[in-house]
Amino acid sequence: MKKQPERTAQTKAALSDAFWSLYRVKPIEKITVKEVADGAGVYRSTFYLYFNSIYDILAEIEADVLDEWEGMFKENFLNGTGGSSDIVSIAASFFETKGEYLAVLLSPAGDPSFAQNIKDNLRQKGYSLLKIEDNTEIRLIYEFFLSGILGLLSRWFREGKPISAVQAATLSRRMMSENIIDIVREHSAVQFSL
What we know:
By secondary structure, the protein is mainly α. It has two domains: 5-51, Homeodomain-like (Arc Repressor Mutant, subunit A, Orthogonal Bundle), CATH 1.10.10; 58-187. 73% of the residues lie in helices and 0% in strands. Helix 1 packs across helix 2, helix 1 (5-23) packs across helix 4 (54-78) and helix 4 runs antiparallel to helix 5 (87-105).
């Protein structure tokens, strides 16, 4: 008997949603197939029609987020509407739409390979767009730049977006172009000297 496509999509989405509601609050090692199936309102055997393991759901969610990142990047950066300095704005916009997922996936409790996948994706696109040849210094520069952006935006989202996405992007740009100590002094209630 063939599955109905709408029903299949609904069941798969219910399983993903049930998994996500658990993953947001507990480590993946502590999540069971039974919990996910119960949360989706299906039997364990139904779970296995769609996924081989809990890790398969996580991998699918990560792949979906990365696909959306790829689409946003192509739409806003590669088509000539943005420049290299706009990568921060694109990332901030992406956090606006996918922040719930990114804040968890990029958190200390998330999958470390996910952050590396985003950085690798950005690095490859940047090299291609800017016609940069790979070398040790360029890899270090990109690692510093991309880790900083992802860290800033992850913290921004986890703290409830206390400033606007535009303000977060502006602050990030300033940190890349100005003396960071001056920026810290400007925003600090306590003045200090070095």
